[in-house]
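Work Package 3 (structural annotation) set out to generate three-dimensional models for the target panel prioritized at the project kickoff. During this period the team completed the workflow that converts sequence records into discrete structure tokens, so that structures can be stored uniformly alongside our sequence database. As a representative example, we reproduce one entry of 324 residues exactly as it appears in the project archive.
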Amino acid sequence: MNVPDLPNISVPAPQLFLCSAQEVDGQGEWLFWSKAPSPILEQSIKDRGQLVPVVVDASGSRPVLIAGAARLQVLSALNRDVLCLDVGAQSLWDKGCMYLASNSQEIVDDSRLVFALRFFHALDAGRLGEVFSALGLDPRSRQARLALSWLKLPRVWDELLAMGHLSLPCAVGLCSFDPDDLQTLFPFFSTWSWSRSGANNVLTWIKEIMIRDRKKAAAVLEALGGQEILDTQLSPKDAMTTLSAAIWSMRFPHWSAMEEKFSTAAKAIVNKTKWQLSHKDQFETGFVELTTRVANGSELQQAITDLVALGSHPMWDELFEEKD
């Protein structure tokens, strides 16, 4: 991440000093990317001590951490003194900018982008151009636009993005729901980790059902047994597949009925043979497709025999009956 000079930061002559790690207030809201120290950092500090000072604002009754949360956590756990670089009194905005600059080596993924924008947007939404510049990101880019859309969601959804349960493009679908609907949907995304297409499909279908049936999300999910699926002992993959299938069936009832009827008839027709019967055009035409695989002449002769026999199966009438 290429971080240019950050404007509007007044930095007095910095001063270095030592103090107990427990004396430093490390709870600032501008520490939006803070995470547990890595084992490598922990071992390095144990073996060689603190090589880089933490940045603090020491203008108050106790030093306030601006950058260096991981180092401070390790030193505090070791009950050691911490070397601090005091940059003097700073505004919340400037503390956030200093934190960005001190973490310029970090890879800014979607969740980190959202965490940073949450902080700065709450302070001054009109200055976000400075933040995008500091992050090396074009504010007109798709990632930037999606991140700004995500900020319209309740903050609780940010953790699902960080955990990989949802992807940033889901912001578009999620923002189409009101707060009550979002609260209803939350357990279904906090419990399982969805692919981008899987989540977007489910969100789109639920919204379309709500519009068609003039129902809230809670009524839709209750009708399709959403809570029962949520409480099931199925694996996450099977539970998501079951939920998606139930939503799809409710969204496309006629199509679903056709699929079920076709599947029943197809299984009966090719039963006990190596032939496969399918439709490839989503019922847009009346055609079906028969396929098989053979490895030798004997299997070919058996396939021909089976094909002749299944050609007179009575269930063909189920597949080729006149459609409305």
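The first strand starts at residue 15 and ends at 20.
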